[in-house]
């Protein structure tokens, strides 16, 4: 049985596979080890912009208010729900 890997696109829901800090996503290469970020692994968000190998992810609270926008390498994202 073949495994199908879906590409992550805009409006898809994703989860971080490692801690993410907004400043680290812009200043450290994807291959580097990152410290404990503001957003722990498992944090879910929605892809709002697709930059190919990086995705801009919006994190919202339970009222739908934006808490943060972070740009994350695609290899540090796991697809939770496909909408695109």
What's a quick, concise take on this entry?
The chain contains 1 helix and 5 strands. It has 84 residues and is mostly beta strands.
Question: Which key terms come to mind for this protein?
Answer:
single chain; 84 residues; mainly beta; SH3 type barrels; five-stranded antiparallel β-sheet; 1 helix; globular
Describe the model.
With 84 residues, this protein is mainly β. The protein is 7% helix and 37% strand. The model has no long low-confidence stretch (mean pLDDT 82).
Share in β-strands: 35-45%
Total strands: the figure is 5
Average pLDDT taken over every residue: 82
CATH architectural grouping: Roll
Largest beta-sheet characterization = 5 strands, antiparallel
Structural class: mainly beta
What is the rounded distance between the termini?
25 Å
């Amino acid at each position: 049985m073949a495994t199908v890997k879906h590409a992550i696109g805009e409006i898809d829901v994703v989860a971080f596979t490692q801690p993410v800090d907004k400043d680290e996503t812009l200043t450290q290469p994807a291959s580097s080890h990152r410290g404990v970020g503001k957003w722990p692994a498992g944090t879910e968000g929605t892809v709002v912009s697709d930059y190919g190998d990086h995705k801009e992810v919006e994190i919202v609270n339970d009222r739908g208010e934006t808490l943060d926008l972070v740009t994350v390498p695609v290899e540090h994202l796991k697809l939770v729900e496909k909408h695109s």
